[in-house]
């Protein structure tokens, strides 16, 4: 059996992609979507307190496994399949994960999902608001995070840095043959999901499969009451609430999509000129891709 890794990017649709691919009978994904096993440069003991609590309260989705047997046991019930998969977004920003994965299984297949970096940063900001972090403006959050004295995964938010794709992708290109790496553009995946899944099925050398697209994963949402949301998180009530109940009361608990903050064109232009214009150009050259849709007219 080969290994399949969706290595990022954070807030780039990796949850949806892993859930869809997990439908294929020849793929079995880890029951913990993000084990982060190969990001050995990320130290749990260095995490800021609120992130530690978030990991603990959502341990069925995210963990930081360091024991090899514990990691292997994640796939104990997979049976005979062609791929054992997982999706840990820290693998893209980690400086050592690419080499660690290669050392573990040099035949691994790597999927990298890239999202417009300005949109990615804003989506990350919305997630932070939902999680109850500082309720400040987007650009203030960017400024504080980028200039934080201590930075890193789980230490700061890396709102800007996670969008510096060139160096992150290049780490994989330096250790894996390019034919083992598939780049997925988030906007294409979102707009033409079936086409993207068909391309990935072909990339993996698997038989055609009719994926079901009725579910939505990790849709941006904000609680109507921050106090109530923080109480629910503190008591870890979500872990004991059936999905059908969560869906039924979602409209009562969360604001509608039309009420969510939007990324303004002005803020987008600032991010583009200050951080991302040259970065996008370097990614275009590295991947030989036209990313015109990511550029902003200023």
Describe the structure.
This protein is α/β, with parallel strands linked by helices and 298 residues long. It has 14 helices and five strands. A five-stranded parallel beta sheet has the order 2-3-1-4-5, sandwiched between helices.
What is the residue-mean pLDDT, rounded to a whole number? 89
How many individual β-strands? Answer: 5
- H/I helix tally: 14
Measure the end-to-end span.
Answer: 49 Å
Shape annotation: globular
Provide the structure class: alpha/beta
What is the string of helix and strand elements? EHEHHEHHEHHHEHHHHHH
Biggest sheet, spatial arrangement of strands: 2-3-1-4-5
Low confidence ranges: none
Radius of gyration, in Å, reads 19 Å
Amount of beta strand: 5-15%
Largest sheet: 5 strands, parallel
User: How much helix is in the residues?
Assistant: 40-55%
Task: Summarize the structure in short.
The chain is an alpha/beta fold. It has 14 helices and five strands.
Break the fold down into its secondary structure elements and pairings.
Elements: E1 2-6, H1 14-21, E2 27-29, H2 49-57, H3 68-73, E3 83-87, H4 90-93, H5 97-104, E4 109-114, H6 117-130, H7 138-146, H8 165-175, E5 181-185, H9 186-191, H10 193-203, H11 226-235, H12 243-248, H13 250-253, H14 265-287
Keyphrases for this structure?
298 residues; alpha/beta; five-stranded parallel beta sheet; globular
